[in-house]
Amino acid sequence: MLLKNSWIINRVLLDDRYRSALDYLCTRVVGDELALQQLSTNVAQVTQAVEELKKLHRDMEAELQAREAALQAAINARAESVASKDSEGALKSAEEWIFGSGSSDDVQAAQILQDAAKDAYDRSVRDEKDLRMRLDAETAALSAATEAYAKANAEHGNHLLQIAGLRAHFKENVLFYMQAIWNFTFRDQIFFSLCNVKVPKLTAVQKTYSLKVPNHIPLSISPKPGQVVLEVDANMQLTSNLDPNQDFVTLAEAADLDNPLGYKGNYIMFPLKESNPLTDFMMVPYLDSELGIHDPDVQYAHCLQEKLKDQLSASDFAALQSQLKEQYQSIVSNPRITEDMVIVPTSSLYIEALPGTHPLLENFKLVHRAMDVQKVQAEVRKLEMENLRYAARMLSGERGDPNVDRKILIEGTNNGIVVPASDQ
Q1: Integer Cα distance of 233 and 248 in angstroms
Q2: Please, which residues have CB within 8 angstroms of residue 70's CB and are 6 or more apart in sequence?
Q3: 97 φ, ψ to 5°?
């Protein structure tokens, strides 16, 4: 359920601390577990290879020691063969002890045996060196694989701890998230998932009503002159031993699945298309043909009195009863609603500024603003008259610049030009 509706839970998550755990659970947990399995397999394989190389290295060291002993024996034998040339008796005993013969080729045979033992020893040394290098490489690989596995396993363990916290949070608020899933579920999907659910069709075997004059008339009822207030007690017996084939209908036939009313816990509530004997019985205290629908506050007050009657003394109970009556009378007699809350959808929210009955500016500011308006009007009139003057100049054939302050015209053929002193 958590993974199936993860996008819904991500939108309505109550605590952002669990958002990373939810993302990890929905996107990476399976891949990381597979990667951990592969890393564990690699560590096991490298460990096995290291153990095999260690065993081979131990065997190689034993063989190398044997080769070294054989080489040392060959060297000793050749030394004795060379020394036996000076003493014939000593040579004979040495040949008999080592080779079993005393021929003249014993020295060369000892040399050949020594060379063969040395070659075998050299090969063993090279093999042991190669094997030790392979063992060092595999040991380094094992260390790297173990470190990578430990790091990945630690990170995965931390994520699993966060997921455990997310699951605990989800269990503590399971009703909230279940209702959120219902809210975000497409209405047609809800309809088709519930339309074929079978529900019992309630019918009444017997209905009886008894009338009596109440001891106390509720405060919410004000009888008109000539009318009598009667208290109705309903007794209804529903049909038992229902037949699944005949006495059950689909939920789509009994309720309006397209317009859910709300939720109660992990239940979704739908309006009934038609009333049944059970709903008629439940509406008896709150529905009257003469007064219409009753306010159930009186019933709640009576329930509170009955609940506290054994816990309070007679004087305290009388004081509480009079206090409840006074509060109810003040509520009923108040024609205005004391408090109301209107929830506007966010997509339809707007704010409109309305003019007030009194200005917020001082009188000086108001007068100054009026004078500013008159000033602007005068400037506009001046510009309009100036435009008319420009038009008259153009009609009379004047094409000069009208904004020239002074025009000086010099005529004649005099060699010198005299400029007025005022223009210097």
Answers
A1: 29
A2: 117, 120, 121
A3: -75, -35
How does pLDDT run across 300-331, given as a tens digit for each residue?
A: 666 766 777 677 777 777 777 777 777 666 66
d(CA 271, CA 99): 115
The answer to whether residue 75 scores a pLDDT higher than 60 is yes
Separation between Cα atoms, residue 308 and residue 303, nearest integer Å: 9
Query: Which class is 6-181 in CATH?
Result: mainly alpha
In the chain, where the domains are located: 6-181, 186-220+229-289, 295-336
Q: Which two tokens stand for residue 321?
A: 């009863």
Helix 106-172, helix 19-27: angle, nearest 10: 120
Q: Cβ–Cβ contacts within 10 Å for residue 330, how many?
A: 10
Contact 42, 145 (CB under 8 A): yes
Measured between its terminal Cα atoms, the distance across the chain in Å is 99
In degrees, rounded to 5, the angle at the alpha carbon of residue 211 between the alpha carbons of residues 206 and 217 is 135
Beta carbons within 10 angstroms of residue 180's beta carbon? 19
What span, in angstroms and rounded, lies between the C-alpha atoms of 237 and 164? 50
Question: Which of 52-61, 219-228, 269-278, 373-382 has the weakest average pLDDT?
Answer: 219-228
Contact 175, 266 (CB under 8 A): yes
Amino acid type, 318:
A
> What's the CA gap between 117 and 71, in Å, rounded?
5
